[in-house]
TrEMBL record:
GO terms for molecular function: diamine N-acetyltransferase activity. InterPro entries: Acyl_CoA_acyltransferase, GNAT_dom. Residues 3-153 form the N-acetyltransferase domain. It is an enzyme of class 2 (transferase). It comes from the Bacteria. Keywords: Acyltransferase, Transferase. This is Diamine N-acetyltransferase. Its EC number is 2.3.1.57.
Amino acid sequence: MRIYFKEITIENWEECIELKVSREQEKYLPHSNLKSIAEWKFNPHWTALGIYIGDNMIGFSMYGTLHDDDPTYDGTMWIMRLMIDERYQGNGYGKLALSELIKIIKNQGQHKDIWISFHPESKTNLNLYSHFGFKQVITGFEAEDEVFYKLEL
């Protein structure tokens, strides 16, 4: 079945905040979808999208640039959030969503790479991002709960 994205709006934001990962995965997410939506509302260069199959929102993604209004902006796009609700995990939807998200970012044509960070113990994230060619980068910002990976476009 085909996945697609819809912007988070007043009509679907509550559905988005009801999405959950499994209890075991909670330690890998720094905060809730509700907090991500709040951050998005204050960052005009970010995009928040529900991930859908049919009429069902199955996940949430948020991406954007950190400083594209700054003259020193270096062409980096960030994926700040990519999650699939626990009821829909294990069906390849995360891989489909990431594939489509990469296409969307590439089609914008103005970014040199995509960065993402995740918890270093999350083997699922490591496998997913590595599958698409993301490579670990050492930035000096690493912490016990975060590693950074980059995909050159």
